[in-house]
Amino acid sequence: MSFRNTKTPLKLEGAAKWQIPRKRHPRAGVMEYYLEGEIREKFIELFPKHSNRRMMQWFGISFSTLQRFKRELDLEKDMKKIRKEQARDVKRICEKNGYYASIRGKKPSDACIEGARKLRATGFTPIKRLKEISPRRYKALMRKKSEQRKELFRKEKLRVKYGIETKTGLRVVENPITHKASACKHLLIKQCNYFADSDDVWTVCYDSQTQRSAQREATAARHGLRIVAGCEENYTTNETDKILLQSGV
To answer: Quick check: pTM over 0.90?
Structure first.
């Protein structure tokens, strides 16, 4: 259980380091925690520079009791010291579970791998969690990843253009065809019996079997396609092979 969507539970379990004693309230008749003597001085000394979770664990009290002592003693937190303490805790945990070793190129511990596998088996994904807790940071991350991928494609295209060995497995097309040009080319081949040039995606060929259309060819030229006369022999051979295959010869 957490308090107001925080990670601090209402009451921590385990033995306290400086257990605060309890006594009966004079008017209400209920048992409550009270500070006096050395424990009071220790509480006043440690409260400003340590987190609520740690104070609850050390003194064996609940969150509401901790807030009551804070109001009664008029105490405030020193957030600079608390952030330094949290940074030390994070560093110690990351060293223990092998996270730092993994980002240095070393294999993480078996316990870390097993914990990550169980966590992902429940359906957890870091990107989805980030989108839930901070849409603004999620959008910034997606924008950054998009820019990085565009830059990666740009560099890979330059390597292909200048004949340099590629460094990624990206499929780079030197002269990609647009969607409109591709749709126009498909209709010419399917409906008017044009055929494509295997050497150039922007070229469409015709022969004596083609039902040529001046309007369609003008539209194709407007989209950047080139209409040229094809090789009659190759086309006739291909048609003959197709007829033989259909007849089962």
So the answer is: no
